[in-house]
Design a protein that fits this description.
Elements lengths: L1 H13 L4 H7 L1 H17 L5 H24 L2 H18 L4 H5 L11 H16 L4 H12 L4 H25 L5 H21 L3 H27 L5
Helix pairs in contact: 1-2, 1-5, 1-11, 3-9, 3-10, 4-7, 4-9, 5-11, 7-8, 8-9
Length: about 230
């Protein structure tokens, strides 16, 4: 979802949606994707529901704060933040963070006060702008709570559902979501996820998908940079 958001969010802005509307509308495909992933993890028996209910509250409260922060910014200010977030998303594509998180740290999972505090802050980011929020959730769940990658991924998608659903309700109440564009984007996201799963086992296909993803993000980043940092056209 994080990588798709790095494409879909600036794409919505390129299509003419104001920054706030694009930020709000982009939550719809994130929600649908997270729900599908949650059902998959539940079917595989990877969900730690007792822990999930312990950690969902601070993340969700943080997302409420994030929504109100997003709504206080002007469209240009929010656009600048989105541009910076897309740049960070591009840089994270070239890191070995996923491999590092996949290591077995041989620890007993434990919910800690520090982890809950950091989770609240991540929730603020998820409510504000969802870009790379999944990565930050994994960092907390693995490094601060001690979960292995499969169980952390399951908890991550549960938190993603909660911290996306609540902002959608808040943004919808304010009239910030463009539903037609959001539903079409969600349908495309689900279709892309299906074909992505089919191609994930083919190394050559994965390589080309990565290259295309980087190219698209770079082009969108250039467009956003020209729009927000370039000289006025007239």
């Amino acid at each position: 979802a994080a990588r798709r958001s790095a494409v879909s969010l600036p794409m919505l802005m390129t299509l003419g949606l104001p920054a706030l509307a694009a930020n709000a509308t982009n939550r719809l495909p994130v929600l649908f994707g997270s729900l599908m992933a949650l059902l998959t993890f539940q079917a595989a028996g990877k969900m730690d529901w007792p822990a999930a209910w312990k950690i969902v509250l601070p993340a969700t409260l943080g997302s409420v704060v994030g929504v109100y922060l997003a709504e206080t910014l002007h469209n240009r200010q929010l656009g600048l933040v989105i541009t910076a977030a897309v740049l960070v998303a591009l840089l994270l594509l070239f890191t070995k963070l996923k491999e590092a998180l996949a290591k077995d740290y041989h620890r007993v999972p434990r919910v800690t006060p520090l982890g809950l505090l950091v989770l609240f802050l991540v929730g603020v980011w998820l409510g504000f702008i969802v870009l790379d929020g999944a990565t930050y959730l994994l960092l907390v769940l693995i490094l601060l709570f001690g979960y292995d990658l499969p169980h952390a991924n399951a908890l991550k998608v549960f938190l993603a559902v909660a911290t996306t659903l609540v902002p959608i309700v808040l943004f919808a109440r304010a009239g910030d979501i463009w539903w037609t564009e959001g539903i079409l984007l969600s349908a495309g996201s689900l279709l892309g996820g299906y074909f992505g799963a089919k191609l994930s086992s083919q190394e050559q296909a994965r390589t080309w998908v990565f290259r295309i993803l980087v190219a698209v993000i770079v082009l969108e980043l250039i467009h956003l940079s020209i729009h927000y940092f370039g000289p006025p056209l007239f």
